[in-house]
Amino acid sequence: MTDFRSDNTCPPSAEVLSAVMPLLREGCSPYAEDEITRAVQQKFCEIFDHDLVFFPLFTGTAANALAITQISQRFGEVICHRGSHIFLDECGAVEHQSQNRLLPAEGPNGKIDPDRLPPLVDNGDVHRTRPGVLSLSQCTEFGAAYRAAEIRALSDPARSAGLKVHMDGTRFANALAFTGVHPADLTWRAGVDVLCLGATKNGAIGAEAVLFFNPAEAAGFARLMKRSGHLASRLWFLSAQISAWLEDGFWLKAAAHSNAMAMRLERKLYDIGIAPLYPVESNMVFLPMTATQSEELSREGFRHYPIVQPGGELAARLVMSHSTTKPEVDRLAGALSRILRATGNAQGKLPA
Of 51, 69, 134, 210, which has the most beta carbons under 10 Å away? Predict the structure, then answer.
């Protein structure tokens, strides 16, 4: 059985494992007060060409919820895309932790359309919540990568209205690998205040990084981590993973590989006349697929997530990882060709 459900179903990378294992025999100071964490923070400052503050966390959900809590106010609104992970797939963690309301916005491919932003200015009405944070997903839940200009088109009006800008960067490395720009261009230079940078889906054992680009805004964040149960004793174990993940640019190489595997699948699908539902700009491919076709694909040995599209149609989400191989992609393409041709997948065929 080959697993294409997610990029966190694969094993951690050998690079991260080999770097972390010796440290488990030694240990470090607890609560992120260790030399590894300090060194990783300095490395991030160099990567992003900016003075910043770094905190390691176990999960992306905790990173998003705590980061947004840190930069938000009481009785606030967090504007996010209707298809974003924080809105659909984090069990209300942001609302629970921050006591803010999530306000969904619309836009194609998981990107917020600047022309469809809700009102950003607080009009003083005590009967409504105040706009406080704009949250962007990079990449989006549909695999799209925001370009720098697209981020600025959203962050400029948000910041002018006094909002802070949060980025859920669980696949930020994939966006960097796709766009080829400097990490700063997709973050602080484009108006992002805090980035939740995901490593778990890109080769780490289980580690996320919260990066505050204004160090003053990080004040008290460790206490927030403690109060919410996320100031773990061995946070150095997370920092060690991130250190290895960043070493020699591995994080970008791993992301580039998973992107390339998705684009390989895309090319093979186009060759047989099947069109993905969304542009392939990261490591995810979405295909229209009936329940019967999905079951057949599973029987052929390819695990995947059937998902319901905004219009109610069923689709298959296929995700590549740092460990996906060309033969695995080729076998998947062959199975899809057999299944979709045999069952007449009209939705997925290219126009004549």
Answer: 134
Q: What CATH number did the domain enclosing 335 receive?
A: 3.90.1150.10
Contacts for 149 with CB less than 8 Å, ≥ 6 apart? none
Domain shared by 34 and 72, yes or no:
yes
- What secondary structure does DSSP assign to 307-352, as a single string? EE-TTS-EEEEEE--TT--HHHHHHHHHHHHHHHHHTT-GGGBPP-
pLDDT of residue 303: 97
pLDDT tens digits for range 196-219: 999 999 999 999 999 999 999 999
**Do 216 and 76 belong together in one domain?**
yes
CA–CA separation, 221 vs 225, rounded Å? Answer: 6
Q: Distance between CA 125 and CA 130 in Å, rounded?
A: 9
Q: Is residue 348 part of a domain?
A: no
- Same domain membership, residue 238 and residue 317: no
Q: How far is CA 106 from CA 83, 92, 144, 232, 282, in A?
A: 8, 19, 14, 37, 21
Residues 128 and 164 in one domain: yes
- Phi and psi at residue 303, to the nearest 5°: -75, 140
| pTM attached to this predicted model | 0.95
The domain boundary, picked from 248, 280, 304, lies at 248
